[in-house]
Predict the structure.
Amino acid sequence: MNANCSKCAMPLESPWKYCPKCGTASAREAVASTHPHHDHEKAPVVGAFSGMLFGILVAPVFIIVGTLMCLMVGPWMAIGIPFIIVGICAPFAGPFLGISALRGNCPWCNAKISSVGPLDAFYCYACSKRIVVREHEMVRAE
């Protein structure tokens, strides 16, 4: 089924959801988007993947500094090896520690919950209701 864009009248082929010329959503997409759907994770895991970016940024620094220390003579060699080990483990440390995860109580059921990283909305694992994060606070999604 081919249709025309409602804004610029460009012919749209059936699999297109947006007009390639002006970016307007097609009529099929507009009808489909009125039905609620879940874009966010249903049951967040405490601290999962929230600090991965921290670990990825810190890892090269520790590995490079540790390698340079290992190239030096003397006690620096013994200090460089732990730096390399920390650099290898750094991407896993952020999620393990839950860096950037927002923790608190569900505004609906008061269960203890944690957001998953930089998401702006997620669902409570206990009551399955949607929670929105605004200004570092969990609020009800009306």
